[in-house]
Design a protein that fits this description.
- The structure holds two protein chains of two kinds.
- By secondary structure, chain A is mainly α.
- Chain A has one domain (2-331).
- Chain A has 14 helices and four strands.
- Chain A is globular, with a radius of gyration of 23 Å.
- Chain B is mainly α.
- Chain B is 67% helix and 5% strand.
- Chain B has helices at 6-20, 22-25, 43-66, 73-90, 95-117, 122-143, 145-148, 197-218, 220-230, 232-237, 243-267, 278-291, 298-315, 318-324, 330-340, 348-362, 366-379, 382-394, and strands at 154-155, 174-175, 178-179, 183-188, 191-196, 270-271.
- In chain B, strands 1-6 form a two-stranded antiparallel sheet.
- The relative contact order of chain B is 0.16.
Chain lengths: 345, 398
C-alpha cells in the first residue's frame, strides 16, 4: 500500500511536467493548427532562465580580506555577490537561495516575448504551407535553439538547487495513515502545475479574451468576420503556451539539472500525451499527462517488474507509455477527450 | 538499362561515374598540403556517403513520392544493423546473409509499423512514426537487452557460435573471403588514392538502389504514389484504395533503410541503440530535404553534402581559423574567429540547423531547385520556364 501511494505521488510529478508541456502543445495546435516541434526547446529555455537568473544573482565583486590570509601569506580573496552588497546580508543571500522561484518572474516576460517573436517572425509564414513544412521548420528551430544553448552553457547539466527550506522530504503518507516520505520540491512542483493549469483554464473560461480565443478555436473564420482580430489573439496565446512550457522548465530545474537536450527528450513524450488526450483538447492533454505519468511510475515498480519477470517477459516500464498510446489510438483514434471528427482521418 | 529514358540514363550514368570514381574525385588535394584535410577520399567517409545515400534514396521514395513525412526511419536502420550483427554472431563474418537478413527483417518490421501508422496521414502520421521510433529505441536500449546488448551495443565476441565459420574463415567482415577493410592504395605523385573493397560494395548497392528508385519513380506504381501526394481524397473518390500503395512505399523505404543498416554493420560490425534515436531520424529528413525532395539525385547529393561538411566542419578549430584569417589586423581577426567559432568544430549542428531552416523557408526544393534556378539564370531561360510553369498549372484543371 505504501509503495502504491508513493508511485501515485511519483506519477503525479512526472505527469505534471508532461501535462504542462502537452497543454502548451495542444493550445498551439488548437489555435493555430501548427505542430510545434520546438516546444521541447521552449521547456528547455525555461530551465535555462532559472540557470541564468541564478548566475546573475551570484555575480560577485572580488575584494581582498586583509584579516585572513591563505597558506602563502597573501590576503584571501573574498567574493561578495552584488545582491548581498545592495540588499544586505540576509536579503541578498535569501535572494540567491530562492533563485529558482524568483526565476518564475524572470521567465514569464522572457517566454512571452520569445513566443511572440517565434510566431510573428517564423511560424506566421507557414500557415499556408503544407503541414510537413511546419514540422520541418520547427524541428530546424529546435536544433538551432538547442545548439545555441549548448554553445552558451556547455554540454554538461548545471545543478540548480531548490531553496534550502525545501531540500529534504516530508512524510505525506502519515496524513492518511501510511508511511511514504516524499521530497518537498516535487510536491511543490505538483501544486505549481495544478495552479498553472487552473490559471490557463480560468483564463480561457472566465475572461472575454479567453472566450474569443475559444470561439476562434471552434470557428476561426466566423470570429474573423465579426470584426475581431483573431490572429493577434492567437499570437498572444502562442506566447502563453510558450510561457507555460517555460514555467514548467523553470520549476523542473531542482528535480532534473538542466541540460541542452532535455527539451528533445521531453518533446516526444509530450507528443504522445497530446495524441492520447486528443489533438487540440486541453482537458485531454492534462488528463493524459497525469495518466501516463502515473502509469509510467507504476510500471517501474519492483512488484510489477517481478510479475513480468515471472512470465519471462522483459520489464516494460520504458515503453509502457508507447504501448498504451498505440492501444488507445487503435481503439479510439480521436484520443481520450478529443472532439469527434477532429484529426480522425 | 534500356528501359530508362534518355535523361534518366544520363542521371544514372552520372551517379555511377561519381560513385565508382569517388576515390579520385573526393581526393583532389595532394597529400601533405594544407588543403589535404579537406580530402574526403578515405574509406570510412566514402562508405558513409554511399550508405547514407541509400538511406536517403529510400526515405525519398516514401516522403518524396507520397508526401508522408516519417520521423522514425532510423528505427529501420537500427533494426537492419542489429540483424546483420546477429548474423555475424550466429553464422560467419560473411556479409551476404547479414545483408539479406537485415533487409528482410527491416521489411517485416516496417510492414508492422506501417500497417498501424498508415491509418493516419499528415501530422498524425509523423507523430505516430516518431512514437514508434522512440519505442524501438527504448526497446533496444533497455527492454530487449538480451537481444540488443542494451547500452553497450551489440558486437561480435570470440565465444559466439558462428556455425558457418570454417578454420580458414576471416575474422573480419568479408564477402566470401574478400575482406571489407582491404584497401589498395594508388600513389600518383603526391596523391594517394585509396580503393577500399568495402566502399565498392556499398557503392554497388547504392547504384542498385538508385536504379530501383528510378524504376519506381517512372512506373505506374510511382505515378500512383504521386497521385496520393497531390490529392489523396480525390484518388479515394475514384474508387481506389490508396492504403496498399502507401504501405508498399513504406515497406520499400523501410527495406532501403534496413539495407543501409546492414551495410553499416558490414563495414563495422557494431550496432547500438543511439542509431535509432529520433534525432537520427531527423538527420535522414534533413538530408533528403537539403538535397531536394522528390527528385532522383537530390537525396544522394544531400546525404553526401551533410556527411562531407559534418566531417570537414568538425575538423576546423580555432587554430585553423586563426591561420586562415592571419592576414587581417589582430582585432578583426579575433572578432571573426570568435563569431565563426560558434559555427565550426563542435558547432556544426548549429550550422546544419540554420542551413536547414533557410532551405525549408526559402528553397523548399532543396539544392536541386537551387541548382536549377542558377542554371536557368545562366542560360537566360526565364521565358521558357514561365511557359512551362503555366502549362503545369493548367494540367490539373483539365
Amino acid at each position: 500500500m505504501d509503495a502504491i501511494f508513493l508511485q501515485i505521488l511519483n506519477g503525479l510529478d512526472k505527469g505534471s511536467a508532461y501535462a504542462l508541456i502537452a497543454l502548451g502543445l495542444t493550445l498551439i495546435f488548437g489555435t493555430l493548427g501548427v505542430v510545434n516541434f520546438a516546444h521541447g526547446a521552449l521547456f528547455m529555455i525555461g530551465s535555462f532562465c532559472a540557470v541564468t537568473l541564478s548566475k546573475i544573482l551570484t555575480l560577485s565583486t572580488v575584494t581582498l580580506d586583509p584579516t585572513k590570509t591563505d597558506f602563502l601569506g597573501n590576503p584571501l580573496k573574498v567574493k561578495t555577490p552584488y545582491v548581498v552588497e545592495w540588499f544586505g546580508e540576509s536579503t541578498g543571500n535569501a535572494m540567491i537561495d530562492w533563485s529558482v522561484p524568483l526565476a518564475i518572474l524572470f521567465a514569464i516576460p522572457v517566454m512571452l516575448l520569445l513566443g511572440w517573436v517565434m510566431e510573428r517572425g517564423l511560424i506566421k509564414h507557414f500557415y499556408k504551407r503544407p503541414h510537413a513544412d511546419q514540422i520541418l521548420v520547427t524541428f530546424g528551430l529546435a536544433i538551432v535553439i538547442q545548439e545555441i544553448v549548448k554553445a552558451t552553457y556547455g554540454a554538461n547539466p548545471i545543478p540548480t538547487p531548490a531553496p534550502d527550506q525545501f531540500v529534504g522530504s516530508y512524510n505525506v503518507g502519515a496524513l492518511i495513515g501510511l508511511d511514504a516520505s516524499y521530497p518537498y520540491w516535487r510536491m511543490i512542483y505538483f501544486g505549481f502545475s495544478v495552479t498553472i493549469i487552473a490559471a490557463v483554464f480560468s483564463f480561457l473560461k472566465f475572461t472575454t479574451f479567453g472566450m474569443v480565443v475559444r470561439a476562434g478555436m471552434a470557428d476561426r473564420e466566423t470570429v474573423g468576420m465579426l470584426g475581431i482580430n483573431i490572429d493577434k489573439r492567437f499570437t498572444i496565446m502562442f506566447g502563453v503556451a510558450a510561457a507555460v512550457a517555460g514555467l514548467a522548465g523553470v520549476m523542473y530545474t531542482p528535480i532534473n539539472s538542466p541540460n541542452y537536450h532535455q527539451g528533445m527528450d521531453f518533446l516526444v513524450l509530450s507528443f504522445v500525451v497530446v495524441v492520447v488526450g486528443g489533438m487540440g483538447s486541453l482537458p485531454g492533454a492534462v488528463l493524459a499527462g497525469f495518466l501516463l505519468g502515473t502509469l509510467e511510475s507504476f510500471a517501474s515498480m519492483n512488484e510489477v517488474k517481478g510479475f513480468f519477470e515471472a512470465l519471462y517477459l522483459p520489464s516494460i516500464d520504458q515503453i509502457i507509455i508507447y504501448l498504451v498510446a498505440i492501444i488507445i489510438l487503435l481503439t479510439r483514434p480521436r484520443g481520450l477527450l478529443g472532439r469527434a471528427g477532429v484529426m480522425e482521418e | 538499362m534500356k528501359h530508362l529514358s534518355k535523361t534518366d540514363k544520363s542521371t544514372f550514368i552520372l551517379v555511377a561515374i561519381l560513385a565508382l570514381l569517388a576515390p579520385f574525385i573526393l581526393n583532389p588535394f595532394p597529400e601533405g598540403s594544407a588543403m589535404a584535410q579537406f580530402n574526403a577520399g578515405y574509406p570510412d567517409l566514402m562508405q558513409r556517403f554511399a550508405i547514407f545515400g541509400i538511406l536517403a534514396i529510400g526515405f525519398n521514395i516514401l516522403f518524396g513520392l507520397t508526401g508522408y513525412l516519417s520521423f522514425g526511419h532510423a528505427a529501420f536502420l537500427g533494426v537492419g544493423s542489429y540483424s546483420a550483427v546477429w548474423m555475424f554472431k550466429l553464422l560467419s563474418m560473411n556479409i551476404v546473409p547479414a545483408i539479406i537478413l537485415s533487409v528482410i527483417v527491416a521489411g517485416v518490421f516496417s510492414l508492422l509499423i506501417g500497417f498501424i501508422c498508415l491509418r493516419r496521414s499528415g501530422i498524425y502520421f509523423s507523430i505516430l512514426t516518431l512514437m514508434f521510433a522512440q519505442m524501438s529505441y527504448s526497446l533496444a536500449y533497455s527492454v530487449l537487452t538480451p537481444l540488443t546488448n542494451g547500452e553497450t551495443g551489440l558486437q561480435v565476441y570470440n565465444d559466439d557460435p558462428q556455425y558457418l565459420m570454417g578454420p580458414n574463415s576471416s575474422e573480419v567482415t568479408n564477402l566470401f573471403g574478400l575482406e571489407m577493410r582491404s584497401t589498395f592504395t594508388l600513389d600518383v605523385g603526391p596523391w594517394a588514392f585509396q580503393f577500399n573493397l568495402g566502399y565498392y560494395v556499398c557503392a554497388l548497392f547504392l547504384l542498385l538502389a538508385f536504379y530501383i528508385a528510378i524504376r519506381i519513380f517512372r512506373s505506374p506504381f510511382g505515378l500512383m504514389l504521386r497521385a496520393i501526394k497531390t490529392n489523396q481524397t480525390r484518388l479515394n473518390y475514384t474508387g481506389l484504395n490508396s492504403r496498399p500503395y502507401t504501405l508498399a512505399a513504406f515497406v520499400i523505404s523501410g527495406m532501403y533503410a534496413g539495407l543501409a543498416g546492414g551495410l553499416m554493420a558490414s563495414m563495422d560490425p557494431l550496432a547500438g541503440a543511439e542509431r535509432m534515436y529520433w534525432t537520427a531520424s531527423g538527420e535522414i529528413v534533413l538530408m533528403t530535404i537539403l538535397g531536394g525532395v522528390g527528385t532522383l539525385l537530390g537525396p544522394v547529393l544531400g546525404a553526401g553534402f551533410i556527411k562531407y561538411f559534418e566531417n570537414i566542419f568538425s575538423k576546423i578549430n580555432d587554430t585553423v581559423l586563426h591561420t586562415w584569417f592571419s592576414i587581417l589586423p589582430d582585432g578583426l581577426e579575433n572578432a571573426i574567429v570568435w563569431v565563426l567559432h560558434f559555427f565550426v568544430g563542435k558547432g556544426w549542428h548549429l550550422t546544419l540547423g540554420l542551413l536547414f531552416m533557410m532551405i525549408v523557408i526559402f528553397l523548399p526544393g532543396g539544392l536541386m531547385e537551387g541548382g536549377q534556378k542558377i542554371m536557368n539564370k545562366i542560360r537566360g531561360k526565364k521565358k521558357n520556364d514561365k511557359d512551362g510553369g503555366a502549362k503545369a498549372a493548367a494540367t490539373p484543371a483539365e
